[in-house]
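User: Please fill in residues for this 187-position structure.
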């Protein structure tokens, strides 16, 4: 896959992220959000890229690599791989701050139990976390809204707490009840 770099895109901008992905230890997609429809127009191309990305990173000790004209930063934990994907000319430090924010936010929300089963059980909150970190911009990139894990976690928890009881799903009500029971037993 060749990536075309437009002369106008080389100038620094707020538009940095081409995609965010979470894969399991077999390279299967848990969650992925791609912002550039020119590079990743179909699900088939996205999954082919993920397979190639996982193949290059699952045994590597590096945190950053160039693949198909993209800068890919990643972090692994237990049975998950977290990826932040940007253009080849993007600042790796900014991309790393987004990756760290994503991982630390998820770790805090899941109470340091960052593994496949827990992520799948809390996929709605994880998706909200990604939306709080990046917002889809225009021209196929996203705008980094926040790279501070503490403020992202606060906003995500405010959003989940503000849902009226009548609009919550059964799973959300049961989860809330479990949390309240657990905390009352721990006191």
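Assistant: Residues filled in for all 187 positions:
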């Amino acid at each position: 896959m060749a990536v075309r770099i437009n002369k106008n895109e080389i100038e620094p901008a707020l538009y940095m992220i081409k995609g965010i992905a979470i894969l399991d230890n077999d390279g299967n997609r848990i969650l992925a959000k791609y912002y550039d429809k020119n590079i990743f127009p179909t699900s088939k191309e996205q999954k082919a890229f993920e397979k190639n990305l996982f193949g290059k990173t699952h045994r590597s000790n590096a945190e950053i690599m160039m693949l198909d004209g993209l800068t890919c930063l990643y972090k692994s934990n237990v049975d998950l791989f977290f990826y932040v994907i940007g253009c080849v000319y993007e600042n790796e430090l900014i991309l790393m701050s987004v990756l760290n924010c994503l991982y630390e936010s998820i770790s805090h929300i899941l109470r340091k139990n960052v593994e496949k089963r827990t992520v799948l059980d809390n996929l709605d909150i994880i998706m909200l976390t990604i939306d709080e970190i990046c917002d889809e911009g225009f021209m196929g990139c996203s705008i980094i809204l926040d790279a501070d894990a503490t403020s992202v976690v606060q906003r995500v928890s405010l959003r989940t707490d503000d849902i009226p009881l009548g609009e919550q799903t059964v799973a959300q009500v049961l989860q809330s009840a479990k949390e309240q029971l657990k905390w009352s037993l721990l006191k």
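For context: The mean pLDDT is 81.
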